[in-house]
Design goal:
Helix 3 packs parallel to helix 4 and helix 4 runs parallel beside helix 5. The longest helix is centred in the middle third of the chain and has 31 residues. The chain folds into two domains: about 210 residues, NAD(P)-binding Rossmann-like Domain (Rossmann fold); about 35 residues, no CATH class. By secondary structure, it is α/β, with parallel strands linked by helices. The chain is built from eight helices and seven strands. It has a seven-stranded parallel β-sheet, sandwiched between helices. It is globular, with a radius of gyration of 18 Å. Bound molecules: NADP nicotinamide-adenine-dinucleotide phosphate. The site of NADP nicotinamide-adenine-dinucleotide phosphate (NAP) has 31 residues, from helix 1, strand 2 and helix 6.
Length: about 270
C-alpha cells in the first residue's frame, strides 16, 4: 500500500536514536522529507548520516536540528527552521527520552517537575507551536497529523515507573482534547504507546532495575517478553511501521486513538 507520504514534510522530535530515529527512517523510505531533533547537534548529525546511509535518499531530504524539547524557545526556532527549509510542514511527531525509575520515597519534587517537563510539557509545547504550520498545510490541501509517542504505561501503569505513568496519562488527556478541537480543520491527533521495544532506553531501564533489585538483566528482559502475548521484545521497525501508517494519507479518518504497539502486553479488553 502506498502511504501517500511523498509530498509530506515531517518534524520528528527525540530522533537521534531509538523510536524517533526509526520513525524518521520509515518516513524517509516513504518519500517524506524529515527534520530530526535531539539535544545534541553531534548526535543528531550522526543520526542524519546513519539515515542517509540506510535509505539512500538525497541529502536535502533530512535536516538535523539541535533542540532540547524542554526549552520552549528552542522548539519555536526548530519548527521554524524545518518549515522554512522544506517550504511546508504537515506531520509532527512528539517524543523525548523516558524519565528515571523510582518508588515514591525515591522521587523528589524536582524529579517530578523534570519528568512533567520532559514528557508532558514538551508534547504540549511542540503541538502548540507546530499547529500553525500544520494549519497552513491544511489550507494548501495537504493532510496534516500529529503523533505523540507515549508508553504502554499510559494504559497499564508499570511498577517503579511512577514518573512515566503520571506524565503519559497527562499526554493522553491532552491528545484527546486537541483531537476534538483541531478535527474541525481536518488535523488528526493520535498517540502511539510502545511496549517493551529494543532501544537504548530499554537497556537503561533493565540496567536501572538490575541496580535496584539485583535481578539479572536477562531475567528482567525475559520477564517482560513472557508477559506479552507474543512472548518477545519488539523491534524499532515494527513500531515505526505502525507510526508511519497513523501519520499517513491512508489514516485520515483516524483521530483521538491510542494505539498500543506492545505484542499484547497490555491485558485490558479495550
Ligand atoms: N523502548 C521502549 O521499550 C519504550 C517503551 C515504552 C515507552 N518508551 C518511551 O518512548 C520514548 C522513546 O523511547 P526510545 O526507546 O526511543 O528512547 P531512547 O533510545 O533513549 O531515545 C530517546 C531520544 O530522545 C532524545 N531526547 C532525550 N531527551 C531529549 C530532550 N530533552 N530534547 C530532545 N530530544 C531528547 C535522545 O537524544 P539525545 O540524547 O541526543 O538528546 C534520543 O534521540 C521515551 O519517552 C520512552 O520512555 C519506550
Amino acid at each position: 500500500m502506498d502511504l501517500g507520504l511523498n509530498q509530506s514534510a515531517a518534524f520528528v522530535a527525540g530522533a537521534s536514536s531509538g523510536l524517533g530515529r526509526a520513525i524518521a527512517k520509515q518516513l524517509l523510505m516513504e518519500g517524506c522529507r524529515v527534520a530530526i531533533c535531539s539535544r545534541s547537534q553531534g548526535r543528531v548529525d550522526m543520526a542524519r548520516d546513519w539515515l542517509l546511509s540506510e535509505t539512500n535518499v538525497a541529502p536535502d531530504q533530512v535536516l538535523a536540528i539541535a533542540c532540547d524539547v524542554t526549552q520552549e524557545s528552542q522548539i519555536i526556532s526548530a519548527l521554524d527552521k524545518a518549515e522554512s527549509t522544506f517550504g511546508h510542514l504537515n506531520l509532527l511527531v512528539t517524543n523525548a527520552g523516558g524519565p528515571p525509575t523510582g518508588q515514591i520515597d525515591d522521587l523528589s519534587s524536582d524529579a517530578w517537575r523534570d519528568a512533567i517537563e520532559l514528557n508532558l510539557m514538551s508534547t504540549i509545547n511542540l503541538s502548540r507551536h507546530g499547529l500553525p504550520a500544520l494549519k497552513r498545510a491544511r489550507e494548501r490541501g495537504d493532510h496534516a497529523s500529529i503523533l505523540m509517542i507515549t508508553s504502554l504505561s499510559a494504559k497499564q501503569p508499570i511498577p517503579s515507573l511512577y514518573l512515566s505513568n503520571v506524565s503519559r496519562a497527562g499526554v493522553q488527556g491532552f491528545a484527546k482534547s486537541l483531537s476534538e478541537e483541531v478535527g474541525a480543520v481536518g488535523i488528526t491527533v493520535n498517540t502511539i504507546l510502545p511496549g517493551y521495544t529494543r532501544t537504548d532506553r530499554l537497556s537503561h531501564l533493565s540496567e536501572s532495575l538490575n541496580a535496584q533489585t539485583g535481578r539479572a538483566i536477562e531475567e528482567i528482559e525475559a520477564g517482560w517478553a513472557a508477559n506479552s502475548a507474543l512472548k518477545r521484545i519488539g523491534t524499532e521497525e515494527e513500531f515505526a511501521s505502525a507510526s508511519a501508517f497513523l501519520l499517513s494519507n491512508r489514516a485520515t479518518f483516524i483521530t483521538g486513538v491510542a494505539l498500543v504497539v506492545d505484542g499484547g502486553a497490555v491485558k485490558s479488553l479495550l
